[in-house]
Design goal:
Radius of gyration: 30 Å
Distance between the termini: 93 Å
Low-confidence stretches: 132-137
Structural class: mainly alpha
Strand order of the largest sheet: 1-2
Order of helices and strands: HHEHHE
Number of strands: 2
Strand content: under 5%
């Protein structure tokens, strides 16, 4: 007897691997299709939508709405001031080109943000640099 080992070669291993891959692909297709939700329809671009975006940014920065990153209200007065200034600049640049409804909405947004900014500014101690965690009363 010889000490040689007999090597058995499975000739169809490639086809078996390919069949397994194909089965895995078929399993993944329904999962991929179900994970893709239909896109949320976006509102049409408008001056009111743009102003509303800046308004919400200001409200979050003033701690009146929870921060999207921490899900807690946080006060950042410098960011709030920037949002208010940007909204005011937009109001000035669009003067004479807005509808009466757009003008009324922008005036209301700016008024609310300015009042909230002044109210929040009174609660910040020197040295906080406008950054404080706001705890609602």
């Amino acid at each position: 007897m010889s000490d040689e080992k007999k090597i058995i070669i499975d000739e169809d291993w490639k086809s078996q691997v390919e069949a397994e891959r194909e089965a895995e692909r078929k399993e993944q297709e329904p999962k991929a299709a179900s994970s893709q939700q239909p896109p949320v329809p976006l509102p049409p671009p408008s001056l009111t939508f743009l102003a509303g975006t800046l308004y919400l940014q200001g409200m979050v920065s003033l701690g009146l709405l929870p921060s999207p990153t921490s899900d807690k209200p946080e006060m950042h007065l410098e960011q709030a001031k920037h949002a208010i200034d940007t909204l005011e600049m937009l109001q000035q640049k669009t003067e004479g080109n807005r509808t009466p409804e757009e003008t009324k909405e922008m005036d209301a947004m700016l008024h609310e943000l300015r009042l909230a900014y002044v109210g929040r500014g009174k609660n910040v101690r020197p040295g906080d640099n406008g950054r404080a965690l706001y705890a609602p009363e």
